[in-house]
């Protein structure tokens, strides 16, 4: 039988393996951001231009079609 001495179990990230894994994630994230920043920022203007037609179609609320009256059966 295991004895509980009033200590809560440690979180996984407080263990040696968890700390090593978190360190690896930080290092990998740093290199991922620094190496791919040029690709992501270089494509940003083209992404914004590609979104313009979608924003035009869906951003205007249907070009004035949002003010329709409810169907005759739904009026009081």
UniProtKB/TrEMBL annotation:
The keyword Transmembrane helix applies. The chain crosses the membrane at residues 12-33, 39-58. It comes from Sulfurifustis variabilis. Keywords: Membrane, Transmembrane, Transmembrane helix. This is DUF2933 domain-containing protein.
